[in-house]
Amino acid sequence: MNNLSLYGWNDNLFQLKQNSAYKHLFHGRVSAVNKTNYEVIAEHGVLLCELSGNVLYGRSSFELPCTGDWIIFQPFDDNKGIIVDILPRKHTLYRRKSGTVSERQAIASHIDKAFIVQSLDANFSVRRMERFMFQVLEENIQPILILTKSDLEFNRHQVNESLKHIDRQIPVFFTSILSPETILPIRKFVSQGESIVLVGSSGVGKSSLINALCERTVFLTSEISKSSGKGRHTSTRREMVLMDDSGILIDTPGVREFGLASDNAEALADMLDVSAFAESCRFKNCMHIDEPGCAVVEAVNSGILEPEVYNSYLKLRKESWHFSTSEYEKRKRAKSFARISDEAKRIKKR
């Protein structure tokens, strides 16, 4: 028997289920997604579920179940079932699907917090952290930055300087699995029933961090490869882990590219400390590039705003605008197609 409240089930989700035509059936949470089926944690155990035709063909690809989704299913064997409905998502972490302009990919849903994991080695990248942080904040998920491998040699002052605009907004932890005392403070950010997703590049130590947080071997890892600097275990799917007397950890595969799936470019100004200067620009519609009287450019030229942060703002803003425009055009085409289809149906009835 599983106590689903430990996995995040609550009164709000119960009310959402009452709105479903399948409210009389069983519910559970997707713990892992395989190529052809879904692992679902239900009250009476773990099931392997497939999709009903209505779900498979009636929803777009990013609406299909992802790790963390709460679903309703019809059991048909001891450990098998058919997913017939998906409860509305909340706090879903998306990214732009690789190789597309505006297609979104759901990483995990019903998330409370996100551990942005970055290692203090050659993989260290403030720009990557900003990218993760922006997408997390867009979904009202609380971000926490965890810097791993602090046992390696690194310039602490240089790292702190590069993170000034970040650590003013979110908690930052320097950790090493070789020093258990650096892991203990992070456990305070995991409460019973909460769901935490871990995101970061391959090799930053997400699996090792989960093992340390759980104080047991959840994922097998081995020595760091001398050639790549990465652990030999690499997550290949999003997978849910229940901590003892605590919350849920969701491991995710490392990503080379984390494309923004956000159409709220203006929120970037707040996150990257640009908005405070933008208020003093001469023109309200200032683009902060080469307009006369631009207080943002002046802040960069005077050394108050870091050029790297400013350039990151311009790059991410452009990417967000591009996604927004492509998303708008896609919806516009869909509406036009729907109108043509409706008109064709009316003509046929005549």
TrEMBL record:
Binds 1 zinc ion per subunit. Its cofactor is Zn(2+). PROSITE patterns: ENGC_GTPASE, G_CP. GTP binds at T148, K149, S150, D151, G200, S201, S202, G203, V204, G205, K206, S207, S208. Residues 90-258 form the CP-type G domain. Residues 109-256 form the EngC GTPase domain. Zn(2+) binds at C281, C286, H288, C294. It is found in: Cytoplasm. Its EC number is 3.6.1.-. InterPro entries: G_CP_dom, NA-bd_OB-fold, P-loop_NTPase, Ribosome_biogen_GTPase_RsgA, RsgA_GTPase_dom. Its main location: cytoplasm. Keywords: Cytoplasm, GTP-binding, Hydrolase, Metal-binding, Nucleotide-binding, Ribosome biogenesis, RNA-binding, rRNA-binding, Zinc. Coiled coil: none annotated. It holds the Pfam family RsgA_GTPase. Belongs to the TRAFAC class YlqF/YawG GTPase family. RsgA subfamily. PANTHER family: SMALL RIBOSOMAL SUBUNIT BIOGENESIS GTPASE RSGA (PTHR32120:SF10). One of several proteins that assist in the late maturation steps of the functional core of the 30S ribosomal subunit. Helps release RbfA from mature subunits. May play a role in the assembly of ribosomal proteins into the subunit. Circularly permuted GTPase that catalyzes slow GTP hydrolysis, GTPase activity is stimulated by the 30S ribosomal subunit. Monomer. Associates with 30S ribosomal subunit, binds 16S rRNA. This is Small ribosomal subunit biogenesis GTPase RsgA. It comes from Olivibacter oleidegradans. The gene is rsgA.
